[in-house]
Specification:
The protein contains 14 helices and eight strands.
Length: 385
């Protein structure tokens, strides 16, 4: 196991009815900006629960955050926050709303060009308004980490930043709030959370037995409960296990002492920014292709994954690894998420543009070994067609 330092101070309030506890978590006297997405929270009762819990607080609302939050939209919220002297940002939604809220909180206190926050991957963040979350979609883990992903629509750039200044003070996770989600969002959330685990697990062995067993438990839970969430949308017990799995997948604990890959995320970001694919759709496409390309390097962990998670009983290592890839691809497909670029009308003509964007963003040494150069990425994209 590699050496590590671990820190996470986000308070989690988990379970049905926990939204009512919001008033005890927001600092007394705070002037609150409620940030949300397309407005579904006003149809399913969540907005009403939030505002009831905020009785006695001054609050304003800002809606319209996109599925991949646009820099341009966030800047409108930053202007509102400054103009109205907001001193607390409350994200009510999924990962996109939380990511947007983190950026809004940082940009509201940033004196220079707000894009500097993104361009420096968070190094320019010297402070931020405090952020709290009411999670309504289990997927990204943003509710318990310091990361935000923002898209600049005008330049087709989708980039991330990290800063402990924007780590949420608290996050409220009521699994019932996810029961009204449409199937596409449920499926995307399952794929997203599963890939988060796999990016930190299917690399190479470092004798991190605790992290490996933890990852395998999360993977088994997601595989077991994911299809149930589609078949039984009102099953709160299923939603609870998926919600907590998604949070634990990317709160930093799995990453302790182990290498991370993240190539599928970095390539996927470009696919989303350029062609509008859902984030999870890009992950379902890229992960199996990357594993196929790096089969020899990843074989030890793919075999472990195949045996412990998929219970593959073959004895030949390469066959086990190949079957593990195929079963993962099949699971994504069973959730209704396609695993080929061609399913979205994309062909080899996109490869040059994707590579150009990766080079522009200086993502030219991908993977846990940093050995996937642009030529290798091109081969991976061909495997994904």
């Amino acid at each position: 196991m590699n050496s590590f330092s671990f820190f996470n101070n986000t308070r989690i309030l988990f379970g049905e009815g926990q939204i009512a506890a919001l008033r005890e978590q927001v600092p007394a006297g705070a002037r609150v900006l409620i940030v949300y997405g397309g407005g579904s929270i006003k149809k399913n009762g969540i907005f009403e629960q939030v505002t009831a819990a905020l009785e006695g607080f001054d609050w304003l609302e800002f809606g319209g955050i996109e599925a991949n939050p646009h820099f341009e939209t966030c800047i409108e919220a930053v202007s509102l926050a400054r103009r109205e002297n907001i001193d607390f940002v409350l994200a009510v939604g999924g990962g996109s709303v939380i990511d947007a809220s983190k950026f809004i909180a940082a940009a509201a206190m940033h004196e220079g060009d707000p894009w500097e926050i993104i361009a420096t991957f968070g190094a320019a963040v010297k402070g931020a308004l405090p952020v709290g979350c009411v999670l309504t979609l289990a997927a990204t883990g943003s509710e318990m980490n310091p990361t935000s992903v923002i898209t600049r629509r005008s330049t087709q750039d989708k980039l991330f930043f990290n800063s402990d200044h924007v780590r949420p003070l608290f996050s409220i996770l009521d699994p019932r709030s996810t029961c009204s989600l449409p199937p596409r969002q449920v499926a995307n959330g399952v794929v997203d959370s599963m890939v988060h685990v796999l990016e930190q697990y299917v690399t190479y062995p470092v004798n991190a037995k605790v992290q490996d067993r933890f990852a395998e438990g999360l993977l088994s839970t997601i595989i077991e409960e994911g299809p149930k969430a589609l078949a039984e949308p009102d099953n709160v017990a299923v939603r609870a296990n998926l919600m907590w799995s998604a949070t634990m997948a990317l709160n930093g604990l799995l990453a302790t002492g182990v290498p991370g890959d993240w190539a599928s995320h970095l390539i996927g970001q470009e696919l989303t920014a350029l062609y509008g694919l859902d984030h999870a759709q890009t992950l379902a496409i890229m992960l199996p292709a990357i594993w196929t390309y790096k089969l020899a390097q990843k074989q030890d962990k793919l075999v472990q994954y195949g045996q412990r998670v998929w219970h593959i009983e073959e004895t030949e290592p390469q066959l086990i690894a190949e079957l593990a890839i195929e079963r993962t691809r099949h699971f994504f497909g069973s959730m209704g998420v396609a695993t080929r670029l061609s399913a979205y009308g994309l062909d080899e003509t996109i490869i040059a543009q994707v590579i150009a964007k990766l080079e522009e963003h200086q993502f030219v040494q991908l993977g846990e070994h940093g050995d996937i150069a642009p030529q290798g990425t091109a081969k991976i994209l061909r495997l994904a067609l």
